Amino acid sequence: MTWVVIVFSLGAAALGWHLMTNRRELPAPSLGTCARCGKARELLDEALDDHHLDAEQRRHEQSGAVDYHVWWCGSCEEGVVVRNTAFEQTWSPCTGCGARATFNVHTVAAATERKGGELRVEVMCPGCGHVDSHRRYTPRVPPRG
Known about the structure:
Largest sheet: 4 strands, antiparallel
Number of domains: 2
Order of helices and strands: HEHHEEEEEE
Helix content: 10-25%
Distance between the termini: 56 Å
Structural class: alpha+beta
Number of strands: 7
Number of helices: 3
């Protein structure tokens, strides 16, 4: 009887381990196919996609901070706006208006084994023009072993 319990427990543990380590994510909906009618969407060129962006998206695209793509379904007359993540720069929320603001990091003092480093972070919002600057500090470089 104890062998049955042991074998059953080991089997259940192995099955649980298999299910946990082999989880697959659900497939993302395809941008090339319309979710409403099932027909193919087309990727609009840069000149046409601006007509389907809101004011904030247009400002960010014109500033060069972000690039948007619009996938258009001619049958439904409906588009899907997606951010081109391969193009996107680093960003943080603007403290002035809350929109996406780009930031640049400049090294003031490099970190060494004796002291940490110092960075100057400049945040610039293409939407409202707000500019902010603050300092960040980095840890010391670990000694060579």
